[in-house]
Fold this sequence. Notes:
The structure holds two protein chains of two kinds. By secondary structure, chain A is an alpha+beta fold. Among the domains of chain A are: 2-170, Aminohydrolase, N-terminal nucleophile (Ntn) domain (Glutamine Phosphoribosylpyrophosphate, subunit 1, domain 1), CATH 3.60.20.10; 225-375 and 495-561, 3-Layer(aba) Sandwich (Rossmann fold). Chain A is built from 29 helices and 18 strands. The longest helix of chain A has 22 residues, at 619-640. In chain B, α1 packs across α4. Chain B is built from four helices and no strands. In chain B, 58% of the residues lie in helices and 0% in strands. Classes of the chains: A alpha+beta, B mainly alpha. The A-B interface holds A 410, 412-413, 415-417, 419-420, 423-424, 426, 444-445, 448, 451-452, 600, 602-607, 610, 615, 617-621 and B 14-15, 17-20, 32, 35, 38-44, 59-60, 62-65, 68.
Amino acid sequence: MCGIAGILNFSEKRVDPVLLVRMVERIRHRGPDDFGIYTDKRAGLAHTRLSIIDLGAGQQPMHNEDKSLSIIFNGEIFNYVELRKDLVRKGRSFRTRSDTEVILRLYEEKGEQCVQDLNGQWAFAIWDSKRERLFLSRDRLGVRPLFYTVTEDAFVFGSEIKSIFAIPNVSREIDPIALDQIFTFWVSIPPRTIFKNILELPPGHSLTVHRKQIAAQQYWRLDYAEGSKNVGSAAAHEEQYAGELLDLLVDATRIRLRSDVPVGAYVSGGLDSSFVTALVKKFTETPLRTFSVTFDDAEFDEGSYQNEVTHFLETDHQEVRCSCEDIGSVFPAVIWHTERPILRTAPAPLYILSELVRAHGYKVVLTGEGADEMFGGYDIFKEAKIRRFCAAHPQSTTRPLLFRRLYPYQPYLQGQSDAYLRAFFHVRPHELKSEFFSHLPRWELTSKLKMFFSEDIKSQVRSHDGYADLRSTLPPGYSAWDAFCRAQYLEAAYLLPGYILSSQGDRVAMAHSVEGRFPFLDYRVAEFAAGIPPYLKMKVLNEKYLLKRCANGLVPPSVMKRPKQPYRAPDGKSFFHGPPLEYVDALLSSDRIQQDGLFDSLAVKSLVQKFRQGRAIGVRDNMALVGILSTQLVVEQFVRNFGDRPFYAEHRAGTAPVCR
Amino acid sequence: MQNIEQELRQFVVDNFLFGQPNGHLSSSDSFLDKGIIDSTGVLELVVFLEETYRIKIQDRELVPDNLDSINNLVRFLERKLQHTS
């Protein structure tokens, strides 16, 4: 795993190597083992390396024999062994055992279509100097990041935005539209990022740059047409589906253990990570070290389930305990890595966890990410199902009682009277017609946070319609898909890459040079899951039905039976729990809020007051606080004082996580 | 009761609208329809009523008819205060 960066000058002018060094220095955390740069008459490529496969060779940028092709690559191609054999059979010769060279040779063989053959997680760039074409590609589901911008005289790209900001003439400005999108959907809609003119290459896309022509093309997308067709088909195939899925998952896990360094696994205490750990344990010979995070706060802690899993599977286990103070102290560093506002602190404990992994000498971990999206695990799917069921008989007084089955971990919701429960989940007629039916309650709740926007931002986004933006990116056929599939798509195509795999995934793991690998996000698994009938994903209200069937007997029975609990961490109170945090006081002060101009200083003051008095307990207040504070940290660390990061140092000097 | 209405309005504005100017909140506006209150909001409201007016609110009283607008709140509170006095 690594970081990549590069510049393509539009005119024939050699790229200044100093610029490349600066770019790659910004992302050295992604690859501290080695680094390399390459320039020719107009292109410059830089690479920073975390050695995982073919430790001795495999330096990058890597070239073909006549140096007409050069590649820089971040990620892993898990089927490189098979692809290499194929290519050798076709007469291609290899100089290394690396997966990087496999991409290069495959490109020689197939050109830009090479991505279709890859099974993995990647962001790479190939400079084809003969054709004067730069070819960039990002993996299907968006595991690895890739950003770019266009300046007056060059195309500039990098694994992280901070490498692009290392170029002096690239401006660093907050995009109000992106802010509006994040304060609706939790993510900005790619290619848009929180920074004006900085674009993200969306998952499943490639991009070619030839002189000043830049063209993106989508080479893959999740397609639920087949899965929608199967609605109501005979249940006789259940057994067959379960068998097929298990075979696929075993293989997806097996190829993800390909590595020349030891591989660990995260254990959350939930089904998905337990299942992945079990697959490694039962179907491979790999000795396994597991890692987990526990919380001081019992509301969030899953330690007892984690213990059951690690005992059941007999793994060598390490855990790190996380307190509110820990979250408060690492948060500026976390935002330096996420490079975008977030509405939950959940990435912070994972940042602390990756530090633990690294401290034990591990560079690679397997995790259970993606199972909830692909196999229907989230409460939002359940909620949509119940809302639809209630809307079909609006007069029913018993149907709304089903809402008690939702969000068992939210005590305030559980304590509500029937009348309020009905009111909170009330379905209005226009919602039933919306293509976003499943997600409207979440997005409408999140949109409430916009009351904290300053008048200036409010007026800038007033005429903007986020739903229209989103609609314009929906795939053909979407509106004809089954309702359950549509909800899955919205999670898998937007929140998964834009939050789960980035802010909660790549960025906080790579902050400590740790690479995540996700068997549930093998594209064969994703395609299989998209193609099965929705009732096998959620049978009535039993989530991840088929997946549970596969996992039966492999994970502890208690983990199979426990109510689904999403991974969460203490939010707003993390910043007001212990001794005052200097950066919180500074960045949320009325003066500062007014100077930065994004939020209403009076409203922020009232919100902070509410937290200080310990009265802010609601989801909305917590999302608002975390959203505003993280936005202010983005402004501080990227717009105002790029690179200075005074608050970043606070963490290093502050409380180190306690390892047990 | 004029006072109580003002106090309640002030609480709603401070606590749920974060002091933002809200010329639009009329006494009959539904907190639910206006998106002012969520599930924890109901709880915050109850804590405020119980602490400020030294009343005890029963679970069965936690319904929109009692709590979902300034007017409903005033009516509910009047009734409660009569019972306790």
